[in-house]
Amino acid sequence: MIVRMKKVTIVIKSSWMDDVLNTLGKIGVVHLQPVTPPENNTIVELKEKIQLMGKAVSIIPEKFVKDSPPSFNEEDGFILAKQLLGLAEEVKHLKEEIKTLEIEYKRLRVWGRFDPEEINRLKDAGVLIRLFRCHKKELSKIPEKLNINIISGDKSTIYFAVISKEKDLNIPLEEIEVPISGMDEIESMIKEKSAHLQRKQNEMSNLYDKSLAIERALIKYRGALDYEEAKAGMGREDEISYLQGFCPESATEGVRKMAGKKGWAVLIEDPLLDDPVPTLLKHSRWTRIFQPVMDFIGVTPGYREFDTNGIFLIFFSIFFAMIIGDGGYGAIFLIATYIAGRFYKNISREKIILFYLLSITTIIWGAITGLWFGVESISRLPVLKELVIPSLYSYTQESESNIIRLCFLIGAVQLSVARILAAARLYPSLTALAQTGWAALVWGIYYIVRFLLLNEELSIIVFFLVGYWVVMLILFGEQREDGFAKGLLRGTTNFLISVVTGIGCLSDLISYIRLFAIGLATREVAIAFNNMAGDIGFSEIKSIVIAFCILIFGHTINILLGAMSVLVHGIRLNLLEFSNHLNIQWSGITYRPFKIQRL
Fold it and tell me: Is residue 48 located within the same domain as residue 140?
């Protein structure tokens, strides 16, 4: 449920600004909306410090986070963060230098250990040593009169040196430039830089132990930034200042009493249509389960839109089950969820319950379709075969058309629910009737899709449903407060545009076939890997090990692909198709009340 909000305007003497902000920060219920753009040098400086400390915190391994407070002041956190980032940069450069030296060392190994300075001294004495690399077949290109020393080689390539006093000697082979440093020198440099790297890493570890000071300083600076932005965002007229914001309706009485106690002038009113009202969601035990998914996606409904968590949870569970498709995989998810809940206490209760629900729905879908790790014989076991719905049994040809029909039915139900909810929101406006027309069109398209894709007979009810949509859309689709006749005229003239939107409904409904397609792909991949393992056989220990590895690898890949498909397709059907029919833009502002952090 989206909590009802009130717009709050507080007018004070400019000299009271700090007092009003401290008081509101203690109450912690007012989401402040800047009256003027909050910009000044202090804010810029704080943002830079917060960015730096946030970067420092992000590189601290989780195992170094301490629960006990440090023995020094939190003000040192910013200095520690700068030191940590400086060390991190040094470590990065040292690793790059060591890697470059190791590559050079590997390149020089084919030439053996030598001192480049000796080659240069011989050059000054008139003796030239040149290094070459060539294919074994190219040795014939070397003039016989030359003195060559083969240094090393492999199956196809030879590395050799030519010793001569002639400066203009022409050899048509790849010449290698004499390196500046030899292997001994590079080896020494690698050891030196590795020791330097170890010292810097030890220094970083010492700073990791002080990570709590950095985190506490980051919290403090964020609070200071909120305070400065709130102060800079207040409106000013001579000796008078004012601020605006929004707070839950249930908290307005506390704000009003505080204003009376402090002597502030306060106006509490309903927000206007164009006000940027933040969204505060109040979840029930049921709808809270889906919130981790919404947090992962990072979207918030607008204040005047719908809280769809409950509906999304129902349909997302179905989508998850049909996309994963395999009861065996559902059992793996169930076991993994139990282990995670048992041994990882930092995982939220909502996430654990959500994955229990998704695991169970997947097992149920696998049971009624008879799909267990892609092995048909498992579905014929005494207990499991009783759970199978014959018309949906995965290993029969006719089940495919039945599952496709079910996908379209699920789509029609979800999209029509969206239209009915949209109608309820518009009631008692006449345009609510137009939304019932759109719901009727969804079901008309449902029968049309079955006719087009499944070759079923076109039901006569289609004409009544589409006709109802046409009538409702023309009569009520464009009704406003300027009279029924003008709304009727607008509905008639805009009808062709609505027809185009109606065609879009057709594509929306057809898109639900992805539930069947991805589930089918999951099944076929499982069967393919099972067949590969079966072809290798289980007669010998070696073949058993190989077949077992193929099964583990194949089913692991299949599960990962299924999980990716859930993220792409399962969420898409909710956020795009369903949301479009419910007219949700997901452009909401998250309710973030002004609070003063106390360390």
Answer: no
